[in-house]
Design a protein that fits this description.
The complex is a heterodimer of chains A (635) and B (273). With 635 residues, chain A is of the alpha/beta class. Chain A has 21 helices and 29 strands. Helices cover 39% and strands 23% of the residues of chain A. In chain A, 46% of the residues are buried. Helix content of chain B is 39%, strand content 23%. Chain B has a six-stranded mixed sheet with strand order 6-7-8-3-9-10, sandwiched between helices. Chain B has a four-stranded antiparallel sheet with strand order 2-1-4-5, with helices on one face. In chain B, helix 5 (129-150) crosses helix 6 (165-178). The chains are: A alpha/beta (635), B alpha/beta (273). Chain A binds chain B through residues 32-34, 143-144, 146-149, 258-259, 261-262, 265, 618, and chain B through 1-3, 140, 143-144, 147-149, 151, 153-154, 156, 195, 203, 207, 210-212.
C-alpha cells in the first residue's frame, strides 16, 4: 500500500476493517482462561461508537484524549476511537505515580481520560481538581466500581451508548469524520521518558507513524497471517510502532495477555512471529535460562552445554559471514532437536521470524546468546521523535556491536562532534508547548539525537552512548559506561549496575544484585538473610559479585577495568526516579543521590556509612542506617 | 463506604442461643448469644484463648455444643454434620490454611464446587449433553467469578503447596467461595500476611460482601483491629468464653471493659498501620 500525505491512521483502519469484516480476527484477548477473538467488524463497531460517543461528549478536533492501563483491546479501541474523532492520543505508563499522571494530563490539556478500572479511576480522582481541563474519566472494568458516584466518571458502555444514539441520528457522521482527516494532522502526543528532566511531549503526525511502519516493513516484511503479542506499555513508542504503524498496514492479529503476570506464559501459547522488546525483556529471558540451568540435573546441564558450544560456533561463523561446514550443520540440527527447540518453545520464540531489541543498549553477550539459539535477533535504533526507529539490522548482515543500516527514506549522518543526526518523513514536528527544545532538536529537518556514534566500514551505525554520558578515562580515551553496565548485567546475579569514572583515576561500579536469583543461590549455600539490604552485604555475595566483575573486566584495556565496587542496599527503582519508566539509568540523579557512595569509592575507605530515609509508595517512611563495604577487584 | 447493604433488622441468618462448650474443666464457651443479620460483616474479637475458634467450630459442626441451640435461617442445626451444613450454604476458611498442597489451584477450587455437581459417576464418565453443559457452566463460574475476583490467573495450574502463604490463603478463600455460600466464616484471614496482602484480602472481603453477585454474610475472626473496625458492621467481643459486648465498631471501641480486656494490650494487638 502506498503511503500518501493524505492517508490517515483512521482511514487505513476503516479500509482494513471493511476489507476483512467478520472473516478475520483482528485481536485476541485471553480472558477467564480462554483466548477470545475479536473480529475486524467488532473492532470497527466499537471504535465507531467510542468515536461518536466522544463527539457527543463535546470532543473537538485536536483535543487530547489520554489513555492509561494495561494492554487490552479496550485501550487500543479508545485510542483508535479518539483518532477517528479527530482527537490526539496520549498514553501514560500504567505504573506512573500520581505526580507524573498529573503533570502529563495537565501539560497535554487532556479533556478525556480513559482508565482501565478502579486503580486508574482512583488516580484520576485524586488529580481531577488540579487538572482544570480534564472533563470526563472513562473506565471499562466494573470490578470494585460499585461505590463511585462522582459525576465526572463514566463507563465505557455509557460512552458507547451515546455513540450509538448519535449514529442512529447521523448515520454518515463517522465516515465523514474519517474523510476529513489529513496525514499531516497530529495523531499522537507522546511523552518521552526523559533521563534528565521532565518528560517532553513529542507531536507525531499520521504521516510520521505510517511512513515509519512502511519503511520498516520494506526491510522485514510481515504478513496478515502473523501473530503478535502486545504486552509492553502502549506509552512506549515501540509498542505503538508494532500495534499501529505496522499492525494496521498488514493487518496481523494482535494478542493481549490475560494479565501482566501471565504475559510470559501467554507469549508461549501464541508463539508470535514478530517480537519487539527493550533489552531488559531479553535480559530477563537469559536470566531465566541461566537460573534453570543452574538448578537442573547433570545430564541436562551437559546437553545444554554441548548445544550451546555448537550454537555459539555457528552463530560466530554467521556473524563473520563465513559459511558453516556440513558437519557443523548436522551438529546444529542435533542441538536443535535435543535442546534448542524445547528451549525456544519455553521462551515463546519457536515461531519468531524477526525479534528486535531497542530503546536501550544491549550487551554483546546477550546478543550472542540468542543467536546461539538460532533466534534472529536484531538491534534497532531510533527514538520517539522519529516515530520509532530509523536504523535496523538486515537479515544475514548482523553485527552485535552495531545497530545496522538506515531503513528506506532515512538518512543518517554524523555531526562534527560525533552526534547522530537523522532525516526522514517520520521525523516529528516538534515538542508540545516547548519551542526551545524543538529548536534544539530539529535543525533544517535534521533530528539531533543527542547520541554519539559513528558509521563503520560496512556502513553500519554504531551507537556509542548518550553524548552527556560518554566518559573520559584516565588515559584520555572516551569510554561508554553503558557498555560495561550491559556486560555486568549478563550475569544473572546482577540486576542493575552503575559505572562511574568520568575524568577520574579509575573506574568503579555500584551493583544492584538480583534479589530472587542471589536469594536462591544463598538458600542453596545455607546463607541466612532477612532482607535485600542484609543479603547484599554478605561477604559471600561480595565474593560472587567480584567474580562477575572480573569476568566483565576480562579483555578490557587496563584503564577501563572496574577497580572497586559496592553493593547497593536497594534495587534501582523508577518510583524513586533512579530509572526512567523504560528502565534507563538517570545518571545525573543517582550521582546526586548517592554522592556519599561515589566519594567513598574514590577515597581510601573500605566502608561507607549510610543514613537515609526511604518513602514508600503508600507514604510510609522508614529510616535506613547501614554500613556498605567497598570491595577492591584484584587485577 | 457509600452504599450499604439493605439490612433487615430481624432477618437473622445465624442465631446462637445460650451456647455452652466445655473441655473437661475448661469452660470454653459459657452461654453465648449471638445473632448475625443477613448481609452484614460481623466480627468476633478477643484475646488468645477467648474461645473464638471453638465458637466457629461449633457453628460449622466440627464440635457439638453441650448446651444451647444454633439456628441457621431459622432452623435448628445442632446435630447436623459439617457437610450437611455446607450444603445449606455455610463455608469457612481456617486460621492455618487447610488446602490440598499437592493439588493445583484450580483443582482445590473445583473441589469446593463439588457439592453443586448434579451428574453422577456414570453420566460423568460419558461426558455428553447435560453433563458437559453442567461442567462448562461450573467452569465459567470458577473462571469468571472466582479466579478473576481473586486475581490468581497466573497461578491457576500451580500446585498450591509451592505457593507463598499469602496466595495459599487466597486459594482457600477461593475454595470457600466455590461453594457459593450464604454465610462465610473467615478465621483470621489476615494472620501472617504482609501489608499489601492484607489490603488485597480486605478488598476481597468487601467485594464478596457488597458486590451484587455475591452478597455474602461474613463472620470474621480477626486480630488486626484496624481492619476489623474498618470492615465490620458489628463487632462481638469475647473473653474467657463470655460475651463482653456486641455492637457497632464505635460502641465497641468506647466500651471500658473492652479497652481493659483487649484493646489495652496495645503492644500485642496493635494494628499494622
Amino acid at each position: 500500500m502506498e503511503i500518501t500525505e493524505e492517508l490517515t491512521i483512521p482511514r487505513l483502519f476503516y479500509e482494513k476493517a471493511t476489507f476483512y469484516g467478520d472473516e478475520k480476527v483482528a485481536m485476541r484477548e485471553k480472558e477467564f482462561g480462554i483466548w477470545r477473538p475479536i473480529t475486524w467488524q467488532e473492532y470497527l463497531d466499537k471504535v465507531k461508537y467510542i468515536a461518536l460517543g466522544l463527539i457527543k461528549l463535546g470532543l473537538k478536533p485536536e483535543d487530547k484524549v489520554s489513555m492509561i492501563g494495561d494492554n487490552r483491546p479496550e485501550g487500543l479501541m479508545a485510542e483508535m476511537g479518539a483518532l477517528c474523532a479527530k482527537g490526539i492520543g496520549v498514553w501514560l505508563f500504567q505504573d506512573c505515580l500520581m505526580e507524573e499522571v498529573k503533570y502529563i494530563i495537565d501539560h497535554s490539556d487532556t479533556r478525556f481520560l480513559f482508565g482501565e478500572g478502579q486503580e486508574e479511576v482512583d488516580k484520576a480522582i485524586s488529580i481531577f481538581h488540579e487538572c482544570p481541563k480534564l472533563e470526563k474519566v472513562i473506565w471499562d472494568d466494573p470490578k470494585g466500581m460499585r461505590n463511585y458516584d462522582q459525576d465526572f466518571l463514566m463507563s465505557l458502555d455509557e460512552v458507547i451508548a451515546l455513540g450509538k444514539t448519535l449514529d442512529s441520528e447521523q448515520p454518515n457522521l463517522f465516515k465523514e469524520l474519517i474523510d476529513q482527516g489529513h496525514g499531516k494532522d497530529v495523531a499522537l502526543l507522546f511523552y518521552t521518558s526523559g533521563t534528565t528532566a521532565l518528560p517532553k511531549g513529542a507531536l507525531l503526525t499520521h504521516y510520521n507513524m505510517l511512513t515509519m511502519g512502511n519503511n520498516l516493513m520494506a526491510v522485514d516484511p510481515r504478513f496478515d497471517s502473523d501473530d503478535y503479542v502486545s504486552y509492553l506499555p502502549f506509552a512506549w513508542i515501540g509498542e505503538q510502532m508494532m500495534s499501529i504503524s505496522c499492525g494496521l498496514q498488514v493487518g496481523f492479529t494482535i494478542n493481549f495477555p490475560e494479565s501482566t503476570e501471565t504475559a510470559q506464559a501467554n507469549i508461549r501459547e501464541i508463539g508470535p512471529h514478530v517480537m519487539f522488546a527493550p533489552p531488559r525483556m531479553y535480559e530477563q529471558m537469559t536470566r531465566t535460562v541461566q537460573v534453570k540451568y543452574l538448578d537442573s540435573s547433570w545430564l541436562k546441564r551437559t546437553c545444554y552445554w554441548l548445544s550451546q558450544k555448537i550454537g555459539y560456533r555457528v552463530a560466530n561463523r554467521n556473524f563473520d559471514q563465513k559459511s558453516v561446514s556440513g558437519l557443523m550443520k548436522i551438529l546444529e540440527r542435533l542441538a536443535y532437536y535435543a535442546v534448542q527447540k524445547k528451549l525456544k518453545d519455553h521462551l515463546g520464540l519457536s515461531r519468531v521470524r524477526h525479534a528486535y531489541t531497542g530503546g536501550a543498549a544491549m550487551g554483546p553477550d546477550h546478543f550472542r546468546f540468542f543467536h546461539s539459539l538460532g533466534v534472529n535477533l536484531k538491534q534497532i535504533y531510533g527514538q520517539t521523535e522519529i516515530a520509532g526507529i530509523s536504523v535496523v539490522h538486515r537479515d544475514g548482515d548482523i553485527k552485535f556491536d552495531t545497530v545496522g543500516k538506515p531503513i528506506p527514506e532515512t538518512e543518517i549522518k554524523i555531526a562534527e562532534d560525533g552526534e547522530i543526526l537523522a532525516r526522514s518523513p517520520s521525523v516529528f514536528i516538534g515538542y508540545y508547548k516547548n519551542p526551545e527544545a524543538t529548536e534544539k532538536t530539529l535543525k533544517d529537518g535534521w533530528l539531533h539525537s543527542d547520541d554519539r556514534g559513528f558509521i563503520d566500514e560496512d556502513g553500519h551505525l554504531v551507537v556509542f552512548d548518550r553524548s552527556k554520558d560518554v566518559m573520559t578515562l584516565s588515559d584520555g580515551r572516551p569510554f561508554s559506561p553503558q557498555y560495561l553496565e550491559t556486560r555486568l548485567k549478563f550475569s544473572p546475579y546482577i540486576r542493575d549496575s552503575w559505572v562511574i569514572g568520568d575524568k577520574k583515576e579509575y573506574v568503579t561500579a555500584v551493583i544492584c544484585i538480583d534479589y530472587q536469583v542471589v536469594g536462591n543461590w544463598a538458600d542453596q549455600k545455607k546463607i541466612n538473610y532477612t532482607s535485600y539490604m542484609e543479603l547484599s552485604q554478605k561477604p559471600q555475595v561480595y565474593d560472587l559479585v567480584e567474580k562477575m566483575v572480573s569476568q566483565a573486566n576480562a579483555d578490557l584495556p587496563e584503564p577501563a577495568r572496574i577497580k572497586k565496587f559496592i553493593n547497593l542496599y536497594k534495587e534501582f527503582d523508577p518510583d524513586d526516579d533512579e530509572l526512567t519508566r523504560t528502565r534507563k539509568l538517570r545518571r545525573a540523579f543517582v550521582e546526586n543521590r548517592y554522592k556519599v557512595i561515589m566519594d567513598a569509592l574514590y577515597s581510601e575507605k573500605d566502608m561507607v556509612h549510610i543514613d537515609t530515609t526511604i518513602t514508600y509508595e503508600d507514604g510510609r517512611q522508614s529510616h535506613i542506617k547501614t554500613d556498605l563495604q567497598i570491595r577492591e577487584v584484584p587485577d | 463506604m457509600g452504599e450499604t447493604n439493605k439490612k433487615n433488622d430481624t432477618d437473622f441468618i445465624l442465631e446462637l442461643e445460650d451456647l455452652h462448650m466445655e473441655f473437661g474443666k475448661v469452660k470454653a464457651l459459657q452461654g453465648i448469644d449471638l445473632k448475625i443479620r443477613r448481609g452484614e460483616i460481623h466480627s468476633v474479637i478477643g484475646p488468645n484463648g477467648a474461645g473464638k475458634t471453638v465458637m466457629m467450630n461449633c457453628i460449622n459442626g466440627l464440635y457439638y455444643p453441650q448446651k444451647g441451640t444454633i439456628k441457621y435461617e431459622g432452623k435448628k442445626i445442632n446435630r447436623l454434620r459439617p457437610y450437611q451444613r455446607a450444603a445449606l450454604g455455610m463455608a469457612r476458611t481456617f486460621q492455618k490454611v487447610e488446602v490440598f498442597g499437592g493439588m493445583t489451584v484450580l483443582d482445590n477450587i473445583r473441589l469446593g464446587r463439588h457439592i453443586h455437581y448434579k451428574s453422577g459417576i456414570l453420566s460423568g464418565s460419558w461426558y455428553k449433553g447435560k453433563t458437559a453443559r453442567e461442567e462448562l457452566e461450573h467452569r465459567r463460574f470458577i473462571e469468571e467469578e472466582i479466579i478473576d475476583l481473586l486475581e490468581i490467573e497466573s497461578i491457576r495450574h500451580k500446585p498450591v503447596g509451592m505457593l507463598p502463604y499469602g496466595l495459599q490463603k487466597r486459594v482457600e478463600l477461593g475454595r470457600a467461595l466455590a461453594l457459593e455460600p450464604k454465610l462465610l466464616i473467615l478465621d483470621e484471614p489476615l494472620a501472617g500476611l504482609n501489608l499489601e496482602e492484607v489490603e488485597d484480602m480486605a478488598r476481597f472481603i468487601l467485594d464478596i460482601n457488597e458486590e451484587k453477585r455475591w452478597k455474602i454474610t461474613c463472620l470474621l475472626v480477626e486480630h488486626d483491629m484496624g481492619v476489623v473496625m474498618d470492615l465490620s458492621d458489628r463487632v462481638f467481643v469475647l473473653n474467657f468464653g463470655i460475651m463482653i459486648i456486641d455492637g457497632t465498631s464505635a460502641e465497641v471501641q468506647n466500651h471500658p471493659e473492652v479497652i481493659k480486656a483487649y484493646l489495652g494490650e496495645e503492644d500485642l494487638y496493635a494494628t499494622r498501620r
